[in-house]
Predict the structure.
Amino acid sequence: MSWFRRLAASLAIVMAVASCTPTVNPATGIREATLLTPAAEARIGAQEHPRVLAQFGGAYDNPRVARYVTDLGNRLKNVSEMADQTFTFTVLDTPIPNAFALPGGFVYVTRGLLTLANDEAELAGVIAHEIGHITARHAAQRYDRAVAGQIGATLATILGGVLLGDAGAQLGQQAGGTAAMAWVQGFSREQEFEADLLGVRYLSRAGYDPMAMATFLESLQAQDRLQRLQAGRDPHQETFSMYASHPRTVDRVVRAAAAADGAGGRRDQGAYFAVIDGMRFGDDPREGFVRDGAFVHPELRFRWRVPAGFEINNRPEAVYGRDRSGMAMIFDGRRLPTGADLVREARTSLPGVTLAEGQPRRINGQDGAIAFGSVALDNRPGEAVVAVVRHGGDQLYRFVFLKPGGFNAAERQRLLATIDSFQVLSAAEAARFPGTRLRIVTVGAGDSVQSLANRMAIDGWREETFRVLNGLGPTDRLQPGQRVKLVVAG
Ligand SMILES: [Zn+2]
């Protein structure tokens, strides 16, 4: 609920400063009446920026990469209609490929997106597209539409329910979460096409090949398909990906690029590979990750089995999971003094509820407790199971399972198996999970897609991942001397 208040407060501030004066859209030159002035846009961006950082794992701690992205972003901004304004370019420390912009010149790309791009022109295409959303003032247009009639609906969608709804919103991964982002997300196809046209304009002016926007979009779609295959889902159904939040087709992007008549500009793979060589790939071992069907945290030294059929979203504050039947889980941890009553902890750790039943439970040699009871989820009756387990002297971890209606016998079995799989790792066991990095290598005379893919330090899907990372189709072959990305331990 505190989150709701924060959102309502920021809306109130914006409404107070908004006026209905017509402004000239800097990118299109069209005079339009918007409620949101450029000054208000700048204020929203500055206000939301720290929240975006908090929600997306902070800025990626790699000065070389940060400087490179800022320089590239500024070169593109300097050929846009907002050349005289200050922009802030940030690389977010998350493995999921994504890019977005806030009003006021804030542009974000994730490190997952950097590991997917194959040359400087592809990254430039992504940044130019996001700059296009800002210069065309798409957030202001969306804001006006929201104010004009749908703001109630928008708020309801964003907020969802109290408990499960919140977990559901978190599970929406990169979707939503802050007021400004709710306006930015879900641009119309027209706005996406306009951002592509503007992106192509900036790319051409900066000397890059505008077709890079199309090749990167293909990589993004290939990555999205692979992820759905890995999760055992229908590869043709879109999810919470960047691809879904920026509705575009390769076809339209190619048309936008062709219209610019600027094909054949720079791609600059050498410069780009020099920057991304050694970058963290996938989850950071300091944050924990899913490996072989288990959630592993080498630094905090524990592991537990992911319930069958669950999709997992590892966030800085907690690990969230859910399955298709509507069962949701939250896993988190906190410090607790030695000697605290664990049964009491399990029964009372959900806000505003005391669960009816609780009992001590030994979990793989650790002290713990489990509690059961009914709770209201989205104002409907539901059931909660909460388990806590002590690790070391004063660290307490918690599993929360929720289901509207209640759990059936098989589901109860499944969640208990996960709780009882919690296991403390020794230093030696933890050292077996070092995390992974990108390494740029040159293809030798005897190398093939298969031989190089077999060197990748990942669980399964090696060839598919190698092809997606290197922008290769299912039948493309390698040439000696070509440079490619590998995923290596480290
Ligand atoms: Zn877009």
Summary: The chain has 18 helices and 19 strands. The first strand starts at residue 22 and ends at 24. The pocket of zinc ion is lined by residues 129, 133, 187, 192, 195, 246 (CB under 6 Å). Confidence is low (pLDDT under 50) at residues 1-21, 146-184.
